[in-house]
Each structure stands twice: as C-alpha cells, then as structure tokens.
Amino acid sequence: MRRVLLILALLAVAVIVVLALAGEPSETRYWVAGPLRLETLVTADAAERLGLGPTVPFDVAPRDGPVVLHAAGRVVQVERRGSADVQATPIGDLADVSALSIDDGGTVWIVRAGRAGMLDGGQVRELFAVPPGGRLELVASPAGDRVYLFGREAPGELARGFVVVDRTGRVERPVTTEEPVVAVAAGRDRVFFATPAAIYALEGDELRLVVNLPEPLAVTSLAWDETNRVLLVATADAVFAMRGLVGVSITRGLGGIVRTRGGTLYVLDPARRVLVRITGLDRL
Prior knowledge:
By secondary structure, the chain is mainly β. It has helices at residues 2-18, 44-50; strands at 23-25, 31-33, 37-42, 58-60, 67-71, 74-81, 85-90, 97-102, 108-112, 115-120, 123-129, 137-140, 146-150, 162-166, 171-175, 183-186, 191-194, 198-203, 206-212, 221-225, 230-234, 238-243, 246-252, 257-261, 264-269, 274-279. It has one domain (2-283): 6 Propeller (Neuraminidase), CATH 2.120.10.
C-alpha cells in the first residue's frame, strides 16, 4: 500500500509541474488562472504606507472579515475603502508580534516576546513559552480548541515536527520529522504540513504522504479551503491548488503567504508587497 501511495504521489508531482489552467495576466504583472477572479486589496504603495516588512504574518477574520496583520510594529485590521484607499485600524496595544492566526470563532492567537497565547478580553493569555534562540510560526485550528506551533527557524527539537497547544496550555507533539516543518494548514478533521521534501496529512493518528516535492519547488505556505476541499500550496512565485492527487497552477509571479476564509483565497506576497483576494475556487 505504501508503494502504491508513493507512486501516486510521484505522479501528482508531475501533474503539479506541468498542468495549468488557461488564464490571463491580472490587473498588474502576475498571471491568474482563467476561472478565477483577482482583486487587489493592498498595493505596493499602500504597503509602504502601512509599514509592511519583508515577512508579514497575517490572517483573515471570519465571514470574509477584515484582514489582520502586523504592520509598523502594530497588529492592525486592514479594510479597503474605495479603489485606492486602505484603512488600517490598530487592535489593542500589541507590539513585537512575530506570528498570528485567527480561528473560525474570531479568536486571535499570537506569538509575542517569546510567548505563544491568545487574545482574551483585550488581554493576552499566555499558554506556551517559546524556547530562546529561534522563531516560531503558528496556525490555529478552525474550531479554536488548539494551535499548531512550528518553524524552520524554531529552536532545538521544535524544528523537527510541530507541537499542539490547547486552550489549557497542554502541549502535545504528534509528529517528529527528519527535516524542518516549513508550513502547516489546519482543517476540522485533518492537518497538513510541509517539509522541504514533501507534504503530509495527519488525520487522527494516521499519517499519510500527500506528495513528494520536486526540486527546486520550495513551499512557503499552505492553506486548507474547507469549503471547496482544496489544499493551496504557495511558493515565493506561484500558488497551486490540489484536490486529491490532482494539482493545478493558479497563479504565476504571485506567491508568498496564503490563507482561506469561506471559500475565498487571500495571498500576501511580501516580496512584491501586495495583498490580493481570489475567488472562484469552486470552479477549478
């Protein structure tokens, strides 16, 4: 059975590399697959005004709400007002936030000053002390009952796999890997994670290989679209959509960090300093 899965995964690699939908250049300089519609939320000029740096943690509030990100030392809600105006509203008095994630209930989970926790009544409730000497990223589960901590720059053994922290502060380590975990996407009944060499899915206690990654494909982010049952895989310059073992290229010249909410895809490209919203994933 494992041999069969490996063969299928290798075939999926070929599909990802060569299969693309017919599309057209977007309103700027990147390509988006034909069935999809792209809307730019934050342009490069607006990003400069907001103070967006080269690495920007972000997520989207429930029901396609405002984007929440870390800009110029603050955590802010970003909403587009008209064709060019972007409004940024600070959330509380939060600074030095290195990672954030939002669950389906709207709770904001953060890593700040060496501690991981959640916003509770405007205050940060700390749940996990991050060992010194590294940097962690986090992804909240949709149900909001736990958060996944990982990172290729994580200190010590935390770089090999990921840990799960629940609302009581209880810590579990369900997976240990030989290579660093570089991206995680959480669903209601599964969690996907990527190493430099492959993407895996963990469903309950069952770990399975989704796809082996061909060089030089370097995953920067994952997102699981629960509405359309699609796994979004981002690199620095492209985004792929996977349903089962079939993958298609949906953007070129646009990549970075991906998030989904209600069937809508959001892509924050730190290198190009743009934030876009993409709809139509149900037509892939």
